[in-house]
Design a protein that fits this description.
Blueprint lengths: L2 H38 L7 H12 L1 H8 L13 H15 L19 H13 L3 H8 L6 H12 L4 H17 L5 H17 L3 H12 L8 H7 L2
Protein name: Dcp1p-Dcp2p decapping enzyme complex alpha subunit
Length: about 230
């Protein structure tokens, strides 16, 4: 083999080696890309127990709720037991989705992670734990989103002492309407009411609104329950 042939052979080997290196580099790039995607979007490992718990919830939300909450609270029409009801609903959802933290009050919106069946089950759970009169009003809204349903119930029924303040105003109206003669018991009753009003820290504007609400009656032809609910 002369020098020219030797140079040609070496050049051919170098070309093949370069091509093999390019192929190897491409393969490494592909592997690196798959590795990055796997680390960025890790798959949640399947948990047979968690899957079984959720399956029970999806099959019968109300039955699941009653098993988790022995007291089985039903949200009353006036929302007076709202805190108890929300706590029970949250407890059921924490169990259903095997969460360490709250479902309803988590910084992460847990509703956004629900699929179609889960959304229907959560909405069914809420509707199944409402007072009949309250349920009739909620159903008239024709809401399919569990998040929208919960937002509506929270806005209408959650009270930060509001229900107690309404009761205070009603006590004042009842005291005035009784029109009893002055006596020690009459004065003690009045002082008790005023003491409660002071602790409730009622502002003039708030008192005026609650006073008007306590006096308001449903117009003729209007459903009394619907009217009471709409003025809350």
């Amino acid at each position: 083999m002369n020098d020219q042939d030797a140079r040609n052979a070496i050049a051919s080997l170098e070309a093949r080696l370069s091509k093999m290196q390019s192929i190897l580099q491409h393969q490494n790039d592909v592997i690196a890309e798959f590795t990055t995607e796997r680390n960025t979007y890790p798959k949640t490992p399947s948990n047979p127990f968690a899957d079984d718990v959720k399956r029970q919830f999806l099959k019968s939300p109300l039955k699941f709720y009653k098993e988790v909450n022995p007291r089985k609270p039903i949200l009353s029409f006036d929302g007076s037991n709202y805190v108890e009801w929300e706590t029970a609903i949250d407890r059921a959802l924490q169990h259903a989705f095997v969460l360490e933290k709250t479902f309803l009050n988590d910084e992460k919106d847990q509703f956004l992670g629900l699929d179609l069946l889960e959304n229907k089950a959560v909405a069914a759970l809420m509707r199944s734990t409402l007072d009949d009169a309250l349920l009739s009003i909620v159903e008239s809204q024709e809401m399919s989103s569990s998040k929208d349903l919960f937002t509506l119930l929270r806005s209408k029924c959650q009270r930060s002492g509001r229900r107690h303040k309404i009761i205070l105003v009603e006590k004042m109206l009842q005291f005035a309407s009784d029109n009893l003669p002055a006596s020690e018991s009459w004065l003690a009753r009045f002082c008790s009411i005023m003491s409660d009003v002071e602790r409730a820290k009622l502002t003039i504007d708030e008192f005026g609104g609650l006073f008007l609400q306590a006096l308001a009656k449903a117009p003729p032809g209007t459903d009394a329950k619907n009217f009471e609910y709409s003025t809350k």
